[in-house]
Specification:
Elements: E1 4-14, H1 20-39, E2 42-56, E3 59-73, H2 78-89, H3 97-118, E4 134-136, E5 141-144, E6 147-153, E7 157-162, E8 176-182, E9 186-196, E10 202-208, E11 212-217, E12 221-226, H4 228-250, H5 255-283, E13 287-292, H6 304-311, H7 315-323, E14 327-331, E15 347-350, E16 355-358, E17 364-366, H8 367-380, H9 386-407, E18 439-440
Parallel strand pairs: 10-13, 13-14
Antiparallel strand pairs: 1-9, 2-3, 4-8, 5-6, 6-7, 8-9, 10-11, 11-12, 15-16, 16-17, 17-18
Length: 445
């Protein structure tokens, strides 16, 4: 299979084995591996160029300065890994392959910490393992006759799991078994299936907003998904959690109800997003989806309401769940809703920010549609230009406007207000449509 990729599926099954000592020993082994790697990290001092903005009239000017920063160099030589493995094997009483698994997980944790440290999201603090789990390599189990047998101690202790009556058995036909994750009361099983990489038939640029998800593609036009129900879930649980916190402050026995509201909120939001992304992958098969590489940390300010609204968003979860159901590409989110897609000029907000107009070419269009178009253009690598805008946007959307006018949907290509935004199905099913378009062109077509 040329240029192959994998489709990953994971399912959980309950078990009644007493594996608390095994999990505690593995957590101690994993933390010991992290400690040894951390002690051998080499810190190199390098100069880094930063800047801050100062107002210069109506514009902002960058003021540059240099700072010294310590960059961690993680040891990864064969000799170091061999010595690390030998030191971890000394007091280990279970199968030796679990040591290799712990080293792999330890390096994964350290590398993740380094990425966040270089972005400024983590300090110079050693990672601490708190959760109890064991990562079971493929060399530590046998899968035969729909049964998994995990080796804990060779020729002494084994754990057996029967999958013959598992509810997900039909879904994993033709899939290979991957690594396992053993927990106190459940076993997480991963399956993988080889998929040949095909050239995408189309591309959609998605602009993620507070209560909607707007997409644009020359093939499908303007696609709008109403996310008000998802926002309503977070808002309802926020009010309930606030009441529970107020009651728990007076009666300590009610503190458990506060955590229940948070867990319930996460479960409902994840269920909604799973259904949403599954429906998108079904409606748009073999399509590459483009999203902004958003970071919430740089969006917070002194306004409490804005910060709470940002905290309720599930942008990263939508991208993460969409990434293993379809092909996903991330683009730079800078000025996607404030840059003119036709000339690259600066946009002014009209109608309380719902519509934007270019200062330079006077192009007028919906702000969310503008963001979706800019994301699509960045996916394709097209710079803003009149020829690209007319070829990619106008030529593809004029036939749709004419069809919608015949059907009486109330499309307003000259910038006037049209029909209401079609809501999402109240039963939770996804409804995708081409809504009204706010576009005013600077020259006659």
């Amino acid at each position: 299979m040329q240029r192959s990729s994998y489709k990953i599926l994971s399912y959980k099954i309950k078990h009644g084995y007493n594996v608390e000592d095994f999990l505690n020993n593995y957590r101690y082994l994993l933390q010991k591996a992290i400690n040894i790697i951390w002690e051998n990290i080499e810190w190199i001092e390098r100069k880094q160029r930063n800047y801050y903005l100062i107002r210069n009239g109506k514009r902002f000017k960058r003021k540059y300065y240099h700072v010294k920063r310590l960059i961690p160099i993680i040891p990864k030589s064969r000799e170091f890994k061999r010595n690390l493995r030998n030191s971890l094997l000394k007091d280990w009483k279970y199968a030796s392959h679990y040591v290799d698994s712990a080293i792999k997980v330890a390096y994964s944790i350290i590398n993740s910490w380094k990425r966040n440290y270089l972005k400024g999201k983590r300090g110079k603090n050693k990672p601490i393992v708190k959760r109890k789990f064991v990562r079971v390599k493929e060399t530590l189990y046998v899968y035969r006759n729909n049964k998994i047998r995990i080796t804990v101690k060779p020729r002494e202790l084994y754990l057996e799991f029967d999958l013959s009556n598992a509810w997900f058995r039909k879904r994993v036909n033709g899939c290979d078994l991957g690594e396992l994750i053993l927990k106190e009361s459940e076993l997480v099983i991963t399956f993988r299936k080889g998929l040949s990489e095909r050239k995408p038939l189309g591309r959609i640029g998605w602009d993620l907003n507070k209560c909607s998800m707007d997409g644009f593609s020359p093939k499908y036009g303007w696609i709008k998904v109403d996310l008000r129900r998802l926002y309503h879930m977070h808002r309802v649980h926020e009010v309930r959690r606030k009441r529970a916190q107020s009651a728990a402050s007076k009666k300590t026995s009610l503190k458990s109800t506060v955590s229940k509201h948070g867990k319930r909120e996460r479960n409902r939001a994840n269920d909604f997003i799973h259904k949403l992304t599954t429906e998108l992958a079904r409606i748009f098969p073999n399509v590459e989806h483009g999203f902004e590489d958003l970071e919430k940390q740089g969006m917070y300010n002194k306004r409490k309401k804005r910060n709470r609204d940002i905290a309720k968003q599930n942008w990263k979860t939508i991208i993460r769940l969409m990434s293993y159901k379809s092909k996903v590409k991330l683009v730079n989110p800078k000025n996607t809703s404030s840059t003119c897609p036709m000339c690259g000029g600066r946009l002014l907000k009209l109608r309380k920010g719902q519509v934007v107009r270019c200062k330079k070419c006077t192009l007028t269009l919906d702000r969310q549609l503008c963001g979706a178009i800019n994301i699509y253009l960045r996916m394709r690598g097209f710079p803003p230009s009149p020829s690209t805008f007319y070829r990619v946007v106008i030529k593809s959307m004029i036939p749709r406007w004419k069809m919608q006018k015949r059907g009486g949907i109330g499309v307003t290509p000259i910038g006037d207000k049209g029909g209401d935004k079609p809501p999402m199905n109240p039963r939770g099913e996804l409804s995708l449509m081409d809504p009204k378009a706010y576009i005013g062109l600077p020259i006659p077509m």
